[in-house]
Every structure is written in structure tokens, then in C-alpha cells.
Write a structure and sequence with these properties.
Blueprint (H helix, E strand, L loop, with lengths): L1 E6 L3 H12 L3 E7 L3 H11 L3 E2 L2 H7 L4 E4 L6 H10 L3 E4 L7 H13 L4 E3 L7 H12 L5 E9 L20 H18 L4 E8 L9 E7 L5 E7 L9 E8 L2 E6 L2 E6 L12 E6 H4 L10 H16 L8 H19 L1 H10 L8 H6 L4
Parallel strand pairs: 1-2, 1-4, 2-3, 4-5, 5-6, 7-10
Antiparallel strand pairs: 7-11, 8-9, 9-10, 11-12, 12-13, 13-14
Helix pairs in contact: 4-5, 5-10, 6-7, 7-10, 10-11
């Protein structure tokens, strides 16, 4: 049994708590949150041992792993403390708000050979996994354009600030919604090398953006379009979709299905005819032991557990992988505020040229 605690008992923290507590190989020993109301209610009605102080939790409990679901501004400090204690860490997204912190923590986790994972759950959705497989198979031919979209009803009126809508804590739609979309784009189609244009709007929020639109370019010439809006009440909940156009066809995927259009049948997709075909997420998703909000939430926790058992420190959604998403966020911010940075990003996308800071952060050539 993997002795685990959940740090942060808000919306995602409670979800992780329920999922981890139901896992047959996880011993959920404690929860931790600064809200005494939450910890008192959980202790009284669920029997869970609860703490109001993170340092006390670390000193009093013998843990193997930690699930962190606190506001984003606390991630770096808490992840570092957990790693220094020798704990495997699952951290909710976005990983950190300062990429330098992310680089340092990725290095630390790798040095200590500790499992590290970030909660980009779309990589565990069957339809998106199929989308990534199709693109990598070459069935679509040479990819020339990608479109990634994320819409939802998070901020629908001017209101008092929460941590999610505070620039220094949550980061708004850019960090809350766009990060998911950008990570999914990296997963399905690879990471672009430059950004060509950025538009950010505050529809209702005072301190952060509610809409983010951008155009990226890949080193080989392909383009990618980002469209994010968390003030869209036409959607009941967050809805994310990706479309990839290639020389031999097109693929579109969302939470429910993966649609493929092929100009001609391809050996990599046996059974897919010329023209349209559809693969549904119900046929692509493996059953999980506990369903809450979607199979992907349980699947990512189980993947984290299996990584601990296998000693797999470079698995899906590692800290290093999350830094690639952080890189794109930084490119968005820098391209809008500093046109010269755009030219630098263009130069960094030339094959064989080191991209300075970011080559160090993600450990690869762009």
C-alpha cells in the first residue's frame, strides 16, 4: 500500500481525495487544508485524519507520496518540501507560475529518482489518446495546421476576486484553461517553436484574462491556432477539442469522440475507410475502479501509483513535460509585451539552434 496524503481540499482536492481513498493500493492516511471548516467536517463525517498545517503533516506522518491540489502560487514551495522529504509528488496544473522554479523542481525530482506527475488529465481521455496515435501514425500525412479550443462558464459576471482570477495566485484563463489546451496540443501534435500573434481579453475579470487567442508556428512551417474563453455560458462545463489537418486527411477529437477523414485508406488505420469514420470514447476508454467526473481523473491517479510501483520517473505528464506547456505560456506573454522576443522565438525555432533558457528548462533542442 502506498501511504498518501492530499494537500488542498477544494474542488480538485476533494475529487482526488475520493479517488485515492477508493483505490485498492492506496492508503490515504491524511488530508491537509488551511480551512478548519473543511478539515473539521471531513474528520467528523469521513473519519479522515486532517491537518491544518503542511509542515506538521510532513513531520508527523510517514508518507510515500503526496497529491497537491492547492492554489497555484503555493505549488513550488510545497512540491520542493515534499521532494526534499523523499516523497513522490502528483501536482495539479498548472505546475508552477515561474518556469525557473519548474526547472529546479524537475531537476530535484530526477536527481532523487522520485515519481513526478502534473494533473493534465486530457492525456488520459481515450479519444485524445486515439487522436495522438493517429497523428503519430502518419495516416494524415504531413500536418499543416492544428486548432485547439477550450470554452466554459467559469467567469460570467463581474464579481469579487477568487484565487483563480488573481494574477499572482491562479493566473486566470491563461493558466486555468489555456494550459490544458496547450498541453493537449503538445501531446497530440507536438510543441510549436514560435508564436506569431496573441490577443488576450478581460471580459468580466479585473486582474486576469477571460479570453486568450494565439497563432503558433512549427519549425517545419505548420501552424497552430489557440482559442480559449472561460466566460462562455453557452457551454455547461469546460469543453475542449482539437482538430489536425494533414496532406492526407483530417482528424477532430473532443471528450466524446474522434472523427477521422481520409482521402485514401491507410495501413496504420485498418478498418478506417476513405472518407469519414468515427471512433467513440466509450470504445476507446478502459474501465476504472472508481468513476468521478470522468474516467481520466481516476486513470491519472492510477498511472501515478503504477509509476511508483515500477520506479517510472519519466512517465506521462512529468514535471519536465509540464515545462513544455509552461514554455508556451511564456512565449504567449513575451510575444505580446515584447515584439523583439517574437524574433528571438523565431530564431529559437531554427533546427540546431539552442534556445537559451528554454533549452535548459526542457532539455531539448527546438
Amino acid at each position: 500500500m502506498i501511504k498518501t496524503a492530499v494537500l488542498g481540499l477544494g474542488k480538485m482536492g476533494l475529487s482526488h481525495l475520493a479517488i485515492a481513498r477508493a483505490h485498492p493500493d492506496i492508503d490515504l492516511v491524511a488530508g491537509c487544508d488551511s480551512s478548519t471548516y473543511l478539515t473539521d467536517v471531513l474528520a467528523q463525517y469521513s473519519g479522515l485524519k486532517c491537518y491544518g498545517d503542511f509542515d506538521r503533516l510532513l513531520s508527523e506522518e510517514k508518507l510515500d507520496a503526496l497529491i497537491i491540489a492547492t492554489p497555484s502560487k503555493f505549488h513550488a514551495t510545497m512540491v520542493e518540501k515534499a521532494l526534499e522529504r523523499g516523497l513522490h509528488v502528483f501536482c495539479e496544473k498548472p505546475f508552477v507560475l515561474d518556469p525557473e522554479d519548474g526547472y529546479r523542481l524537475a531537476e530535484l525530482a530526477e536527481q532523487k529518482k522520485l515519481v513526478n506527475q502534473v494533473g493534465y488529465h486530457y492525456r488520459f481521455v481515450g479519444a485524445f489518446q486515439e487522436a495522438a496515435r493517429i497523428v503519430r501514425s502518419g495516416a494524415l500525412g504531413e500536418v499543416h495546421h492544428v486548432r485547439i479550443e477550450a470554452y466554459g462558464p467559469v467567469v460570467l459576471r463581474p464579481s469579487g476576486s477568487t484565487w483563480r482570477s488573481t494574477k499572482t495566485e491562479g493566473g486566470g484563463a491563461l493558466y486555468d484553461y489555456a494550459c490544458h489546451a496547450l498541453d493537449l496540443m503538445n501531446f497530440v501534435a507536438g510543441m510549436p517553436g514560435a508564436v506569431n500573434g496573441v490577443v488576450r481579453h478581460s471580459v468580466f475579470s479585473r486582474d486576469v484574462d477571460d479570453e486568450v487567442y494565439a497563432l503558433f508556428r512549427y519549425p517545419g512551417g505548420a501552424s497552430a491556432q489557440l482559442s480559449v474563453n472561460w466566460s462562455d455560458e453557452s457551454h455547461r462545463k469546460m469543453s475542449t477539442a482539437i482538430t489536425v489537418w494533414g496532406s492526407r486527411g483530417r482528424m477532430s477529437a473532443d471528450r466524446q469522440e474522434c472523427q477521422i477523414y481520409l482521402r485514401e485508406p491507410h495501413d496504420a488505420l485498418p478498418g478506417a475507410p476513405k472518407g469519414w469514420s468515427v471512433r467513440y470514447t466509450t470504445d476507446l476508454t478502459q474501465e476504472v475502479w472508481y468513476y468521478l467526473r470522468g474516467e481520466e481523473y481516476s486513470a491519472q491517479v492510477d498511472y501515478f501509483l503504477q509509476s511508483i510501483k515500477l520506479g517510472r520517473i519519466d512517465g506521462e505528464n512529468s514535471f519536465r513535460s509540464a515545462l513544455q506547456t509552461d514554455r508556451l505560456v511564456s512565449m504567449l506573454l513575451e510575444a505580446e509585451t515584447n515584439p523583439a522576443q517574437q524574433r528571438a522565438a523565431d530564431m529559437a525555432s531554427v533546427p540546431g539552434r539552442r534556445a537559451g533558457l528554454w533549452s535548459r528548462l526542457i532539455g531539448e533542442r527546438t
